[in-house]
Structure formats: structure tokens, C-alpha cells
Amino acid sequence: GQEYMKRGQYEVALGKLKKAIREDPDYAPGQTVIAVLYERIGEQELAGKHYKKAYDADPKNGDVNNNYGVYLCQTGKEKQAIEHFLKALDDPFYSSPSIALTNAGSCALGNDDYAMADEYLRRALKIEPDLPDALMNMSKLNFEQKNYLGARAFMQRYEAATDHNAETLLLAYKIETASNNNRTANTYKLMLESNFPESNQTAEVRRLSGR
Questions:
Q1: What's the rounded Cα separation, in Å, for the pair 197 and 211?
Q2: How far apart are CA 53 and CA 57, in angstroms?
Q3: Which pLDDT score, from 0 to 100, does residue 210 have?
Q4: Under DSSP, is residue 171 helix (H, G, I), strand (E, B) or coil?
Q5: What pLDDT, on a 0 to 100 scale, did the predictor assign at position 211?
Q6: DSSP state of 95
Q7: How many beta carbons lie within 10 A of that of residue 89, not counting itself?
Q8: What is the model's pTM?
């Protein structure tokens, strides 16, 4: 099922995954993969049902809790999501605690809980100082709090760790515009227009700049 999903053959993948979970409804990885597939084809309610089944089958599993938390955060259930991210940390065999902490921080930030976002993201960066998603979210957090110097510092660390995407280029543009660094802001605008010409972020940067 996973292999067919990777190839984009979603109908075949769905058939295989349905058969797998019929054979063993308590197999958490099978429930998780079918949940991911349902998300990809826009069946959010079914995705949530299977993420919950994966959790019920293996409630202490770090990956299961993290995946369920991501789904809950995306569907507006931030408080429940953060509970699952923190449960993931209780799994001694969970290999990605910095990811769960970053997800918790991002979810708290989306809920305008800046203090909790700061705590979780700093904990993530203590484990993995160059984690791009944590650095980007710390930059965004500082920007939202109008700490533009801090926002730029985290953006610079992000740039040292990985390449920009459309979202981070727009954020960098906003930081430099708010700091009255118009030349640097324009550089980010040009990068965004050049690399992601059809993106929503490019449309937004043109609207913000008036052209």
C-alpha cells in the first residue's frame, strides 16, 4: 500500500491498505498509512478516524502520537494536538523528539500562545540546533512579537541550515520591510518571484509591495 501511494496510484494503495487493516485492525502503522492516504485525497474525516484508531491501537507510540497531533493541529484542535506531541516525548524509543517539540511549538504559535511556542521551540533547538522548521518558527514567533532583530537572527540561522522555500522568503521579506531594510527586502522579493512565480506567497509579496 505504501509503495503504491508513493507512486501516486492511490486507488490501488487504498485497496491494499483496506485489506491490511481488515486482516489486523490493531496494526497501528497500517491505520496511520491509510490515514495519510485519506488526507492526500481530501477525506479529512476518514483520516481523523484512522489516526484515532492508530492511537487506540498503540497509545504510547511516539510516531503515532506525533502524527495524530499534526492532524489535530491542522483541524483546529490545538490543545489536544499539543497533548499528543508531549505524549510522543514519553516514548523512550521515539527517535525524533525535536520534531514533536517543533510541532508543538508551531501549533502553539498558530493558536497565538507565544509563551508556550517559545518554550517548545527552544527545547527543540536545544536538542537539534540546526533544525530548519524550528528556526523558521522561532523567526516567525519573533516577527509576530515585533522583535525584528531576533526574527532576522533566526532567519539567518535558517539560511545557514537549508534552502529557502516560498513561505520563508515571504517571511524574510516581511522582516526586512518591517526593519526598513528595503534593499534587502527587495532581494527576497526578487528571489521569491524568480523561484516561485506562481505561488500564493509571490502574489502576496506583490500585493504588499504595491507591484
A1: 14
A2: 6
A3: 85
A4: helix
A5: 72
A6: S
A7: 17
A8: 0.91
Cα–Cα distance measured from residue 211 to residue 201, given in angstroms and rounded to the nearest whole number: 13
What DSSP state is assigned to residue 199?
Answer: S
Q: Any idea what the Cα angle at residue 72 is, between residues 68 and 77, rounded to 5°?
A: 150
Give the Cβ contact number of residue 119 at 10 Å: 15
Segments in the chain below pLDDT 70: none
User: In the Cβ-directed half-sphere of 169, how many Cα atoms lie within 13 Å?
Assistant: 24
Alpha helices in the chain (DSSP H): 2-6, 10-23, 28-40, 44-57, 62-74, 78-89, 97-110, 114-127, 132-144, 148-161, 166-178, 182-195, 200-209
Nearest to 40 by CA among 64, 57, 17: 17
Instruction: Output the CA–CA distances (angstroms, integers) from residue 12 to 2, 34, 47, in the order listed.
Output: 10, 12, 17
Q: Which three cell numbers stand for residue 137?
A: 518558527
The label of the residue with cell 483520516 reads: 47
Closest CA to 116 of 91, 89, 94, 85: 85
| Per-residue pLDDT, 179 | 96
CA distance linking residue 139 with residue 154, whole number of Å: 5
**198-206 contacts: CB < 8 A, separation 24 or more?**
199/166, 200/166, 201/166, 201/167, 201/169, 201/170, 202/166, 204/170, 205/169, 205/170, 205/173
